[in-house]
Known about the structure:
Low-confidence stretches: 1-23
Radius of gyration: 27 Å
Number of helices: 12
Shape: elongated
Number of domains: 2
Order of helices and strands: HEEEHHHHHEEHHHHHH
Number of strands: 5
Strand content: 5-15%
Structural class: alpha+beta
Distance between the termini: 38 Å
Amino acid sequence: xxxxxxxxxxxxxxxxxxxxxxxxxxxxxxxxxxxxxxxxxxxxxxxxxxxxxxxxxxxxxxxxxxxxxxxxxxxxxxxxxxxxxxxxxxxxxxxxxxxxxxxxxxxxxxxxxxxxxxxxxxxxxxxxxxxxxxxxxxxxxxxxxxxxxxxxxxxxxxxxxxxxxxxxxxxxxxxxxxxxxxxxxxxxxxxxxxxxxxxxxxxxxxxxxxxxxxxxxxxxxxxxxxxxxxxxxxxxxxxxxxxxxxxxxxxxxxxxxxxxxxxxxxxxxxxxxxxxxxxxxxxxxxxxxxx
Length: 291
């Protein structure tokens, strides 16, 4: 019987990178400058204090905030996004912009206007943060080149995060379908009078039917081949493999209910895995080419 192997070192690396992306605060390295990104009410806020390290000379966020063009842009952003913005106080601040003695801190600006685009944080991720829309304008104040690279690197980070989210969703779907699979095993393959140890062997054996059909190896064979990796073979599956695995769990449950022998089920599932993975990878290739 032909066994089609889809597990690869590349897919293992992908899953490991996906796990790394799942952190409360992300970091970008833009032209050698480490920049922190945190979540504020599900929105990305980028650390202006970190970004300022890329600007030549001694400058402060307040130097940028006192600029009239900066305030105009912030005012427009707040008008669109913040119904509680204090336009009266903002107008007073904006009218003073450009005067030699005018200077205002982020904390004072937020307190007087109720602005939400700027945040002053203390603690582990301390510093002045701005909503990404504002932070990108701040990047232009540093230099056009710096803005180009931070926007590009931020977009790449978001793409990686989306891949990670998609992978997690597919993994959870596979776990849900796993219960359908195990219920079929319990109903048709596990004798009523059997000890827990031998019961677990039956479940593991049926799980390996899917592993062999899709990955070309049992869970134990994968662990022996990857002694330094944590988790199991399915934790390192690609999104396409998880989609296929979810389908196969449902199909194997149907085959078990129909009373098909294990060897016949394995052969059918292997053929289905080959077919479905080919379709999924062709669809993905077309999508990449169109992009």
